[in-house]
Structure formats: C-alpha cells, structure tokens
Amino acid sequence: MIVAAAYSPATADSAVSVSRKTINNGVQLKIMPLGASIVWGQDSTDGDGFRLLLRDMLEANGNNVSYVGTRFHGNMTNNACEAYPGDTIDEVQSRANSSGAWEYVPNVVLVHLGTNDCEAPAHENSSIAADKFVSFLQNIKSHNADALVVASDLIRNLNHDVDECIVHFNSHLPRIVREAKEGGQKITLVDMHDAVPFSDINTTDLTHPTDAGYAIMARVWYEGLLNASSMISAPSAAGKTAPTTPSSTTASSAGKVALTSAVWILVPFALWMLGS
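Request: output the structure for the sequence above.
Response:
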C-alpha cells in the first residue's frame, strides 16, 4: 500500500513536486473520481477536496488531466466527479450506472467509498460492506475493463464506533484487491487511513478531512498512480469528451489562484506533521 512520505525541510521541494516524474510517459489521464462526500470535497475551503492539487501535481509533472463524471463541485475548472454525499456503496453504484457516467470511458477511476456503510442509518457490519465492495469493483470492470482502478482504504473517523467499523472494513481490502487483480482487473490499493492523521479530520462533523488532510490525500493518489503507471492505457477514443464545467460552480481566476496557493502551502506542513 502507498503511504505519503514524511516531510523534512531538506526535502521541501519534493513535498510539492513529489519526484518530478510523469505518469507512463505523459499519457493523457481521463480520471473519474468515484465515491461519496469525501470524493466530492465536502468541507474543503474551495470545495475541490483533493482534486485540484492532484491535477496540479500531475500536470506539473507532464500529464494532461481531465476529470469526468456527471456531477460538479468546487471552485476549480473541470470540477467533474461521480460523487454522491451520504450514499452507501450500493447507492453510488446504482447512481453511477444510471447517470451515464461510464460513457466517458475513463482510463483511471479513483475510489474512496464505504464510510457511509459504517454510519447511521446503514449500520452495516464491515463484512457486509466488504462484500458490497467486491460487487462494486466487478461492476466497474463490467463497464470499463481497461480502466485502472485506484482503490483507497477509508480515512479515519472521529466517531469511535464508525472508526472501528472502518478499521475492520479496511482489513478486507488487501484480499479484495488482490483477488480482483488475479481476476484480470487493473487495480491497485493505496493507504489513506495511515496517511491522514486524526488531527486532519474535521472536528465538527468527525468525518471529512481538513484542507491539510485533502492535500495529503492528493499526494497519496499521486504516488499510487505513479507506482501503477504501467497499467494505465491511453483513453479510448470511443469515450465522451470531458464535460464542460457549469459556470455557476467556478470561481474567478484570482480566487482560484489564491486557493491553489493556500493548498500548496498546506502540503509541506501536512507532510511534516506526518513525519513528526
């Protein structure tokens, strides 16, 4: 599993650029962020969550990035995703299947999903949620067998009972991902749970990352893509082009620059906290 590297003053530049490496020789990345409210970017200052910083890191290192999906959230341009706040694994699967999202034929699918299965009113035990995640991955493969799925374990939760369920759910994921890979799916697993500390979870809702937490998530996604880059194929020409961001969801250019700068400042600090 992939964990964000610790930050030290001597490696400040690497905290921003990671390693200045392109993903698979600069392949075009057509990314579907798939999940619930954490993928949506809930409670982040700009609504972009991890997506803007991840895109900036990928493009700074030589890959052109387009986010795809039927939902839009955040101040960034190209703010598409397929994320449904409050939904469980089954509900996200049903919505994505009926929304037309798979018509974009992404070559990368980022998945962080299952927290709501551990929260009320679902009250599912971790084994039931894990079985649903198996079906969820199979559903992705049935729609797009060539996409690399970057699956994430679940970040921590400040509600003790929810976090206990999350820990048990996460324990199933290495086996699930290994079996999916053995079954021919392009898939890798990244470790968000250990990367994002309790101190970077919102103390108001107990569930969503702070801006620093979202910045760490972006770094972990990037490292996961870098390590699995050989599995990423060029996007299919049959897929729909990336959707145009509705004007009502975008910020002014000045606002976007300011928000981007603020998040870049958070990256070294967040990674320093991980190493301390």
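Residues 68 and 85 are 17 Å apart (CA to CA).
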